[in-house]
Design brief:
2 copies of one chain form a homodimer. Chain A has 343 residues and is of the alpha/beta class. Chain A is built from 12 helices and 12 strands. Chain A binds a DNA duplex (16 and 16 nucleotides) through helix 2 and helix 4.
Chain lengths: 343, 343
DNA sequence: TTGTAAGCGTTATCAA
DNA sequence: TTGATAACGCTTACAA
C-alpha cells in the first residue's frame, strides 16, 4: 500500500509538506505543491482516514440511528441526510435499531467507540434511550422526528398541528365519531399526535372518548389489529385517524379484508404520506411531512455544529400538509352501519 | 477521555495486559483479569476503534453501496445485511449512489481510504462501475442483485426464470400480446429479465416483437412514461410485464390516470413484490424475490471471507416466486380494445 | 504469564 | 516556507 512517506520521497519533500499540501493547512511553495500533486497522482495515493482519524480525534462520519429502515418516512429522511452529508464530505453510518431499546443502546455504545463526528437519532423511547455515552465523548447529537429530554438540536414536524388539521378535516367532511389509532406511549410523536386529535375534537365541542383512542405500535400489525377491535365495538366510529404510515397500511389491509367500504362506512386519514396513496381506490387522505427536507435540514444543522457553531441548541419545526384524497370524503350522507361482513 | 493507559494504571498492570484481557488474545492470570475488568467498568473505558483500526489495518465496518434507498427491494436487503452484520460485530456504512456513476465512484474511492473490511455493492453499471480501488487495497467485494465482470462472490436471483414464469403465467391467463418494460441496458438485471421474457414467448411459439420491448430506467417515471407509449400504439398489448417494482408503481399511476381497467383491458405483472400489492384493487401479481434472505446471505458470505475463507468465489442464486393476484387474471374472455380514455 | 517498546499513517509542534 | 520529530491509542513481537 502506498503511504504518505512514499509520496514524500517521490516528490523529494517531507511528509509534513505532503500533509500541508493535501489539507491546504499552510502555505506551500507552488513548485512543491505541483511536485506533490503529481506524485500523488502517479502513485495513486489515497490518505489513510483511520490514521488521520486517530491523529485528529475525529472521523468524517455521521451516524444515523433510526427505528425502522423499512418505513418510507425514514428512508426518505435517510436520503436527505445522506445527500447533504456526502456532499459535505461526510459518510453516513446507518444504524437500524428496529425500535429495540437494547439494540439501540448497543449502537450508541459502539458509536461512542468509533470516533464518529456526530449522531442523528430518532430515539426508540423518550425516557429510556440513553445517549450519555455519546455526550461524554463530546459527540454532537441531533434528534429527528422524536425528541429526547436533553438539550440538543432537534428537527421535527408540528405533530399536534398535523393531527388537528386531520381531525378537523374528518369532522368537516361529515364524520361524527372519530377514532384515533396512535403509537406507543413512550414515543413523543405518539403522544403529541393523540393530543392534537383530542384538541381538535374539543375545539369542535365534542368529548374525546377514551374508548375511541387506541395506543398501538406504529407497525402494520398494530394498525391491522386496532381495526379488528374497532369493528367489534357496540357503537363503532364513522371515521378513523391513524397516526403513522405503517399502521395505515395495516388498517387498509384489515378494512379490505373485512370488506368495509371507505369512505362511506368509515372515513380514513393517515399520518405520513405513502408513495402509493393515490394508486389505491379510494386514494388515502394523509398528513404529509416534508421528509426529505427534514433529513437535509438535520444534516445541515449537525454539520454546522461540527464545523464549530456553538450557539444554543435549536429545534427546527416543519409544518405538515393535509393531502385530501377520496378516503375521507363521504359521498353519501346516510350513515351506514359499520359492521364486519366477513372474517 | 479515558484510554487504555488509564485502565492499566488503575489495575496496576501494563497496557499489553489490558489489551490481552479485552481481546482474549492470550492467557492472563484470572486475578489480573478481574482487576482489569473492574477498572474498565469503573472508568467506563471504551476502546478506541480508530486506534485499533490503525494498528490492525482494518475496521469492523461493512459498506453497502446501493443505487436506490427508496426502493423497497433495497431497504429490505439492507435490513438483512444490517441484521447479520451487527450481530457479528460489524457496523454497516450505507452508501446511496442513486444510480449515479460519478457518485458511486466517489464512494468507492472514499471507502478505499477508510479501512472498511468489505463492500457489498449493487453496481450502477455492469461495464462502467470500477471497483479496482477496492481490489487494490485488498478489500473484499460481493455483488448483490446486479453483477460485475470480475471474479467475486455474488448474490442474486434467477432473473431469467422470474421473467419466464411471469410471462408464461400471462400467456396461460389469456394474454395474447405481452409487452415488457425493462430497465436500462447497462444493468445486468434489465437484460436478464428481458431475456427471460423473450424465451418464454418463444417457448410458447410466439415471436418476440421488438416494438413490445421497452428499455426504461427502473424508476417510477420510466414506468409511467412507458405506459403512455404503449397506449399510443396501433395494436396495443393486452398484457404488460414490468421488470421492477418502481416502474410497476409508475405504470399503475399511468393506467389509473388513463382509466384503463386491469386486468380486462390489460393484464399486469410486476417484478419485485410491493408492500401494498394486495391493498390495491385489483391486487398486483408480482414476481417476489426473497429480499431479506438475499441480504442476510450476502452479509454471511462476506463475513466468512473476512474471517479467512479463501475458497473460490461463489454465486448464490435464489429462486423467485410468482404471487398471483387479480391484476393478471382476465375475468372476461372478450377482448377489450385498449385505448386511452382520458388525458 | 507479564512487561517493554516498536510501530500502524497521519497531523501538529517546534526549530531552522 | 520547510523539515524533524513527537504524539494519537492501540496491538504485538520480543524479552524477561
Amino acid at each position: 500500500m502506498v503511504v504518505m512517506k512514499d509520496v514524500a520521497e517521490a516528490a523529494g519533500v517531507s511528509t509534513a509538506t505532503v500533509s500541508r499540501v493535501l489539507n491546504k493547512s499552510a502555505d506551500v511553495d507552488p513548485a512543491l505543491v505541483s511536485r506533490v500533486m503529481s506524485a500523488v497522482e502517479r502513485l495513486k495515493y489515497k490518505p489513510n482516514l483511520t490514521a488521520r482519524g486517530l491523529r485528529t480525534q475525529s472521523t468524517p462520519v455521521i451516524a444515523l440511528i433510526i427505528s425502522d429502515i423499512e418505513n418510507p418516512f425514514f428512508t426518505s429522511v435517510c436520503r436527505g441526510v445522506e445527500d447533504v452529508a456526502s456532499s459535505a464530505g461526510y459518510s453516513v453510518m446507518l444504524c437500524n435499531a428496529d425500535g429495540d431499546l437494547a439494540k439501540e443502546q448497543e449502537y450508541i455504545s459502539m458509536l461512542s467507540s468509533q470516533n464518529v463526528s456526530g449522531v442523528i437519532i430518532s430515539p426508540a423511547s423518550y425516557d429510556s434511550t440513553d445517549v450519555t455515552p455519546l455526550v461524554e465523548r463530546g459527540i454532537n447529537i441531533l434528534t429527528i422526528d422524536r425528541e429526547l429530554p436533553i438539550d440538543c438540536d432537534a428537527v421535527r414536524i408540528n405533530n399536534q398541528l398535523g393531527s388537528q388539521i386531520a381531525t378537523q378535516h374528518l369532522l368537516s367532511s361529515g364524520a361524527r365519531r372519530v377514532a384515533c389509532i396512535t403509537g406507543p406511549r413512550f414515543a413523543s410523536t405518539a403522544r403529541d399526535r393523540l393530543a392534537g386529535y383530542v384538541q381538535a375534537l374539543e375545539a369542535a365541542g365534542l368529548v374525546a372518548e377514551a374508548d375511541l383512542q387506541f395506543y398501538s405500535d406504529f407497525k402494520d400489525e398494530g394498525g391491522y389489529h386496532a381495526i379488528g377491535l374497532l369493528l367489534e365495538m357496540e357503537d363503532p366510529p364513522d371515521a378513523i385517524f391513524v397516526t403513522n404510515n405503517r399502521m395505515t397500511t395495516g388498517a387498509l389491509h384489515a378494512l379490505k379484508e373485512f370488506d368495509v367500504s371507505i369512505p362511506d362506512e368509515v372515513s380514513l386519514v393517515g399520518f405520513d404520506d405513502l408513495p402509493w396513496a393515490d394508486i389505491v381506490s379510494p386514494g388515502v387522505t394523509t398528513v404529509r411531512q416534508p421528509t426529505y427536507e427534514m433529513g437535509t435540514a438535520a444534516a445541515r444543522r449537525l454539520i454546522e455544529r461540527l464545523e464549530g457553531d456553538d450557539s444554543a441548541p435549536q429545534t427546527i419545526v416543519f409544518d405538515p400538509e393535509l393531502i385530501v384524497r377520496a378516503s375521507s370524503v363521504k359521498t353519501r350522507t346516510i350513515r351506514q352501519p359499520l359492521k364486519r361482513k366477513s372474517v
